[in-house]
Amino acid sequence: MSNLVEQLAKARQAQGLTQAELADKSGLSRMAVQKAESGSTDPRLSTLEVMARALGMEIMLVPTVIRRDLEHFVQSGGRMLGQRAGLEAPASVVDKVLERKPR
Question: Residue 93's domain spans which residues?
């Protein structure tokens, strides 16, 4: 889970939030955020989910057996093999997701 915690810390920093601001936004204590990010505690998945949502993110658990295929799909822009390219191509799944506005 350490990679997940690192990604959340990077997302917090990218949004210019302090640990205290993330704690306030997520309803957690500053110590809970600090301990999670420092690795001094093994946070519950529910704590990480709350942090992620406060950052406008969702945690998605992916079965190992499809992870590589999913990564390739996302890296390809969500286009399936054989889908026509260029301006006439239909929007990809990734394009549609990026069009959504955060709630």
Answer: 64-99
Reduced 3-state DSSP string for 42-75? CCCHHHHHHHHHHCCCCCCCCCHHHHHHHHHHHH
pLDDT in tens, 24-70: 999 999 999 999 999 999 999 999 999 999 999 999 888 998 888 88
Q: Are residues 10 and 48 in the same domain?
A: yes
Tens digits of residue pLDDT in 1-16: 578 999 999 999 999 9
In this structure, are 72 and 48 located in the same domain? no
